[in-house]
């Protein structure tokens, strides 16, 4: 039950999704209700079938600061999703990151979406690389690209091969 309470405690006052369940409601659930929620999430995990409510969101266009609001390209879409599904996402992410790091399946060079790491790590690495090349009178080449409009257009299906030894339950 620690896993679900930890995921809920990491929730912040975000807006509610289409299910009208607020994070504050989840934070104040009694233990028996938390256990029921955990059982529901375990059943979803074991079956691999996500409810359609996890694939539904309310999209609100938010204008980019300092941009012309009459241009539709100057808006950032904000998707409000189910708070219960966000809790499950946090639990899955926590479990997946733990597994990947424990089994050294994430490159040490990966900084994005990892705790205690940021783009600054790569900037420092790049600066060191350029300084070293300069000191040795060599060339330094960098390739940069920007993924401006990347998004996932489908509902995720989580499955792991039997050899991965991932537990089919969110309950530790």
Descriptive account of the structure:
With 172 residues, the chain is mainly alpha-helical. 39% of the residues lie in helices and 8% in strands. The chain has helices at 2-9, 23-27, 31-47, 83-102, 119-135; strands spanning 57-63, 75-81. Strands 1-2 form a two-stranded antiparallel sheet. The N and C termini lie close together (8 Å).
- Kindly state the number of beta strands: 2
DSSP helix count? 5
Which word captures the global form?
A: extended
Uncertain spans = 156-161, 163-172
What tags apply to this protein structure?
172 residues; mainly alpha; two-stranded antiparallel sheet; 39% helix; 8% strand
List the helices and strands and how they pair.
Elements: H1 2-9, H2 23-27, H3 31-47, E1 57-63, E2 75-81, H4 83-102, H5 119-135
Antiparallel strand pairs: 1-2
Helix pairs in contact: 1-4
